[in-house]
Each structure stands twice: as C-alpha cells, then as structure tokens.
Amino acid sequence: MSDNKPLELRVSVDVGYRRHSVAIGLPSGEVLEEFEIAHRPEGFEQFFSRIEKHQKLRACEVAVAMEGYNGCARPLDRLVRRRGYRLYNINNLKLARFKEIFPGAAKSDRIDARKGLELFQLSDHLPLAKEVLQEVKGTPEENEILKRLTRRRRRLVDERVRVISNLQTDLQAVCPGLLEITKNAGNQWFLNFLVSADTLPQLARLRPSTLLKIPAVGRKYASLIEDWQKRAHFSEEVKWVSEMIQEDARRCLELDEKIKVLRAKIKEVAKDSKIAKSLLSIPGFGTICTSELAAEIGTIERFSKEGSLALYLGMSTLDNSSGKYQGSKQPKHVNTRAKAAMMVAIDRHRKYVPESQTYYEKKRSEGKKHNQAIRALGRQLCRIIYKMLTEGREYEMRPEKSNTKSKVSPRSLLKTQIRKKKSQR
Fold it and tell me: Which residue in 304, 188, 176 sits closest to 255, CA to CA?
C-alpha cells in the first residue's frame, strides 16, 4: 500500500433473507469485527453505529461490498449510499470462482462475509480482479422509478401470456371450434364475449342484439359469433371448467387495464430521463423499449467502455478460442430484460434505416440466423449508443449522397453523424 493512499475502512456484507452477516476490516487484511444484523430498522441502526465507531477511531473513508443479485440488499444499499459510503456490488459468478480457487474451511455466512474482505485485498494487488467488485454509481431517480415500473409491467405481461396459454388449452378441450373465430384469444372483443354470459353454453344462445351490446364487438365480429353458434359444441367438462375459463378471461381483462395504466405512467416518467430521451431519437426505438433500457442501464457511468455496455445488453460474445479452434461463447453476465428490449428495438430499427437493413441482410447472406444478425447489428449500435449517452447527443441519420456508384462497406454505412442539438436562438 502506498503511503499517499488514504486509509479505508472496509465492510463486507453477506446478504441473507432475514439476517445479514457483516465483517469489518482494514486494507491490510486485519478483521476488526464480525457480527450479524437483522433485516429490520434496528438492525440497520446497529450496522451503521458499529461502522461509525471504527471510522471515528481511524478518521477514514468507508467502502461497503455486498451482493445485490437476489434483491435482499434493499433498502440497506440505499442507506449506505445516503451515508456517503462507497458501495460495491460483488460479482456473484466471479465470487464463486474465487471460492473454488481459494476455498474456505467450511460454508457459512460468516466465512462468506470474510471472503468479501479478501476480494478487496485481491483488487488492490491484481488489476484484473477489480471487476469482481463493481462500484455502484448513483442512478437518477427517474431511472429508478422506470426500473420499478417497467419490471412491474413485464411481470404483468408475462402473467397475461401464461393465462392466455391456459385459456386456449381449456377452450380447445371444452369447446372445440370456438377459437377459430379469432386469430388471437387475447383480443379484447373475444375476452368480453367469453364473460358476457354466466356460463359458456349460454354464449351459444345469445341474440344478435345482445352481441352488439358487448364492448368491442361490432357487426363483423357478431357475424363470426353467429356462424359459430350454429355449430357450437361443448364437452362434458364444461360443467366444471366453464367457470375457470371465464375467470381467466376476466383476469386477462384486468391485466390489460393495469398494463395500460403502467404504460401511461412509464411514458410520463420517461420524459424526465435523459437516457430514455436520447434512445428515443433512434429510429424504431419505441417508448417501452427505451424506458426499459434506461431503467436497466441506470447511468452510463457504470461502463468504462462501449464493450462493457455491449456485454451488459447481450449484444456481444466472449472469445472462446483454443488452439486451432476459433469460436465464441455467450456471456453469463447479461441483463436479460435489457437484452429483450434491445432485440425488439433493433428489429424495428432496421426497418426504418436503410443502412441498418443492408447490414442485417449482409449478415443473413453470410449464413447467420435472424437473432444472430440482429445481435451483430446491435453490436454496431452499442458503439453509437455509448457515444450518444457519454456525450449527451442524439441520433441523426447521415444525409443520402447523390452519387451512389462508389461502394461503401456495411460498417461505414452504419456510422451516423451524431451532433449536439444546437440551442434555438
């Protein structure tokens, strides 16, 4: 340790569901104190009081490392940052590899807390180990709100998909032929039709005037329903499955309303997010996808280079070559939510930008599948996005040149001129 480097009090927290194990030590490796705290306000007070006791004796800064993978670190992580302490997130996969190389005497929360202090020491002496402890940067409040809203929306969308899948299966078994009148069982008019009577068999006896009173059912859909009523058939299971099907239909309608409300909230909050507004300037990037990306990225300061951003978004692979074998592999540390949003946004983007479509078609002609070509295009876009977010710029397409005879490489075609918006006079 160099003399000019300030002394730092280091705290490692092994996060549990109800209790957390804490180890306090120094850069030299000396363990000052070990204890447990409960995941309650009084436990948090005990945590900070013990840290402050050692901090006052040594007049030093405080760095806290904890795992945040399972979400049990909240709200302790926010309280740590509010105190002005430096907060580090322990990379779970690299911690597991570290335990394999340097195993402990046993597996316990107390020993795992000590491992966090060892990671601090390792990062001091081995530059490559610095990524094991990733410093948590401050995230704008609007992006934190977007993270909650977009993740909530995604859970509701996934739930709706599961309910619709069960609904379709039950309808095929109980009332074969009913699904043929709609291309999608999740259509509003079809769900409203399913719940318009007390039981499913009564649907076959509804009058045309009654059908027209069902929300979202017009003459076109009423005609389809009337054709089905002439050949309606129900199995014996309808007696006890009818209620289940209608409950699923009502649940889908309820989820649709909740998703609609969340979408409006997301759109409103995204107006205050710099990341969301920058990404929204990219052709094809919609409100939901940009909001999800802004929420998961949080702040571009987390990434030291554009390659790190590409790995985080799942748009890049890792080299897996060995000897004569040349290949790559998918990274494990990928934000799956951000990757899903990125894949949808890029697929739309290529349809708006001719240069991106050209690059996509080139990759397909090389034998790549659709998703592989989309990721290849996404890798190029990550360079642009990183530049946009680090310099506060917006996306601008390069004007088409009149002379198209000269050949241009796909990568140069993809490059865009990103200029700062000039302030209006």
Answer: 188
Q: What are the CB-based long-range contacts (under 8 Å, 24+) for 214-220? A: 214/189, 215/188, 215/189, 216/187, 216/188, 216/189, 216/192, 217/189, 217/192, 217/193, 218/189
Helix (H, G, I), strand (E, B) or coil at 214: coil
pTM over 0.85: no
The pLDDT tens digits of the residues spanning 183-240 come to: 889 999 999 999 999 999 999 999 999 999 999 999 999 999 999 999 999 999 999 9
Give ∠ CA 17-291-68 in degrees, rounded to 5: 20
For residues 189 and 209, give the distance between their C-alpha atoms in angstroms, rounded to a whole number.
15
Q: What angle do CA 79, 86, 84 make, to 5 degrees?
A: 50
Q: Which CATH number fits domain 8-136: 3.90.70.10, 3.20.20.70, 3.30.420.10, 3.40.1370.10?
A: 3.30.420.10
Structural contact between residues 21 and 110, judged by C-beta atoms closer than 8 angstroms: yes
CATH topology of domain 143-269: Helix Hairpins (1.10.287)
As beta bridge partners, residue 23 has 12, 34
d(CA 378, CA 270): 22
Rounded CA-CA distance 168/178 in Å is 10
Identify the pLDDT of residue 229: 94
State the Cα–Cα distance between residues 118 and 26, nearest whole angstrom: 10
Question: Rounded to an integer, what distance in angstroms lies between the CA atom of residue 279 and that of residue 300?
Answer: 12
Question: What's the mean pLDDT in 361-378?
Answer: 94
Residue 351 CB neighbours (<10 A): 12
- Give residue 216's pLDDT: 92
Please name every residue paired with 36 in a beta bridge, in sequence order, or none if there are none: 21
State yes or no: pLDDT of 44 exceeds 70.
yes
Q: What is the pLDDT of residue 69?
A: 60
- Quick: pLDDT tens for 46-67: 999 999 999 998 889 999 998 8
Query: What are the residue boundaries of the structural domains of the chain, listed by start?
Result: 8-136, 143-269, 274-399
Identify which of 72, 11, 247, 258 has the alpha carbon closest to the alpha carbon of residue 152: 258
Q: How far apart are CA 291 and CA 210, in angstroms?
A: 42
Average pLDDT, the chain: 87
Q: Is 284 exposed, middle or buried (0-12, 13-18, 19+ CB in 10 A)?
A: middle
